[in-house]
From TrEMBL:
One of its GO terms (molecular function) is methyltransferase activity. Pfam families: Methyltransf_12 (PF08242). It comes from the Bacteria. The keyword Phosphoprotein does not apply. SUPFAM superfamilies: S-adenosyl-L-methionine-dependent methyltransferases. Residues 59-155 form the Methyltransferase type domain. GO terms for biological process: methylation. It comes from Streptomyces achromogenes. The keyword Kinase does not apply. This is Class I SAM-dependent methyltransferase. Keywords: Methyltransferase, Transferase. InterPro entries: Methyltransf_12, SAM-dependent_MTases_sf.
Length: 275
């Protein structure tokens, strides 16, 4: 696909996330009207890999409602969140204000982040949990990240494992509990088109823009993009837990997250790289 076609599909995604936002803000899934605990979205190993954040400049790319961004601010970071959805950025700013936390939010496409952030550099760039699948070009993304990091800065990606994406959404009505491969594990076959009136949260149907596009990115593609951009991979973890029960037969663990009783397969991964 050409860059113009990629841009058109990303504009469709932007409209879709603008439409999703009011549903997500009021959903039980995010629980924003409750006592907010932004750290519930983090695996314990993330904090080990991220290290001390107090006094650090931390950028959260594709931050959506900024729930994880708030956790960085609570830990003393100078936190910045960036997202292409105007509705998401507005909601994130409202949430930060209600939480009494000083977080800066910027509306921009991730590929335009260097310009949007006026050349500012960061100690940590964080992204993940459903972000990379909305990017058609990982080489371009990794180049942007490298330009956003200070020398010695770290990229931390915590993403749903490409195997999870290959399994596709949870089974539909009338389908059995079997785990079935519904999509490619590897990228390169073009975007997966979805036309869904409901998102991954509870709540009413999305009004308006229901079309979205996702791109598959295998682990090799992610690691190669990062290293080709001049960053060195220092750690790669795979985890069999998710922060919510994607399948009905998942069981809750001591961490408060969820895993399949069998088979044990990777559902999440964490990648740490240094510039």
């Amino acid at each position: 696909m050409t860059s113009a076609e990629h841009a058109r599909l990303m504009r469709a995604n932007q409209a879709n996330w603008d439409a999703r936002t009011p549903v997500h803000v009021t959903s039980r899934f995010y629980g924003l009207d409750e006592d907010l605990d932004p750290e519930r979205w983090f695996a314990a190993f993330e904090w080990e890999d991220l290290g001390e954040l107090s006094g650090r400049d931390v950028l959260h790319l594709q931050c959506h409602l900024g729930t994880e961004t708030l956790a960085f601010a609570r830990r003393g970071a100078r936190a910045v969140g960036l997202d292409f959805s105007a509705a998401s950025v507005t909601a994130a700013r409202d949430l930060a204000a209600k939480s009494g936390l000083d977080v800066t939010y910027v509306q921009a496409n991730v590929y335009d982040a260097v310009k949007a952030l006026e050349g500012r550099r960061f100690d940590v760039v964080y992204t993940g949990k459903g972000a990379l699948c909305y990017l058609p070009d990982l080489d371009r993304w990794a180049d942007v990240v490298a330009r956003l990091l200070r020398p010695g800065g770290r990229l931390y990606v915590v993403e749903f494992h490409p195997l999870l994406h290959a399994l596709g959404p949870k089974p539909g009505p009338g389908e059995g509990p079997e785990l079935l491969l519904r999509h490619d594990y590897l990228g390169g076959a073009g975007p997966v088109h979805r036309d869904a009136t409901h998102t991954y949260t509870d709540g009413p149907a999305v009004e308006g823009a229901t079309d979205s596009y996702e791109w598959m990115h295998g682990m090799g593609e992610v690691v190669t993009a990062v290293t080709d951009a001049g960053m060195s991979v220092r750690r790669l973890r795979e985890s069999d837990e998710l922060p919510w029960p994607r399948w009905l037969r998942m069981i809750r663990t001591d961490s408060g997250w969820w895993r399949l009783p069998e088979p044990r397969i990777p559902l999440l991964y964490g990648l740490l790289a240094l510039r």
